Amino acid sequence: RGPLAGPVVAAAVIFEPETFIEGITDSKKLSEKRREALYQLIHEQALAIGIGVVDHRQIDQINIRQATFKAMRMAIGRLKPRPDYLLIDGEALPEKLIAQEGIVKGDFLSFSIGAASIVAKVTRDRIMVEMDEEYPQYGFAGHKGYGTAAHREAILQHGPCEIHRRSFLRKILGER
Prior knowledge:
Elements: E1 8-14, H1 32-45, E2 48-54, H2 56-62, H3 64-77, E3 85-89, E4 99-103, H4 106-109, H5 111-134, H6 140-143, H7 149-158, H8 166-174
Parallel strand pairs: 3-4
Antiparallel strand pairs: 1-2
Helix pairs in contact: 1-5, 2-3
């Protein structure tokens, strides 16, 4: 599930109730250029933004689901003011420290979840562009760590690099 390399990133965003930014939706449905523009608007208009990043090592140690929850907790913990209610994309956190609601396809259905998905995606994409400078042979700036044919071929040709999620590569490396 998800990219073969890099961290998992979660974001949480608080807006005033009357705030609306045209075009916010599921980050996967937006072009990179549009996401970047909306990211800027979100940062200008949000009351608070929290971001959580869990690296590839922890993903391999605790699994992607637990790493995602950890990134979500980090993002929520960085919000000031502290929210009194959470809307969460998909599955809610197992612990209910703050009242919350998990919404399937929440990034498409909820303005604040859509905004958080844009912040998380842009943040992660920027990390992967930085990683491309360190590991240019993998083309991270283009595919952002996702399992494209070119990325899989680069893994077979060069072997995995430091930021690959080893637990995600078993099938690819087993085909060698």
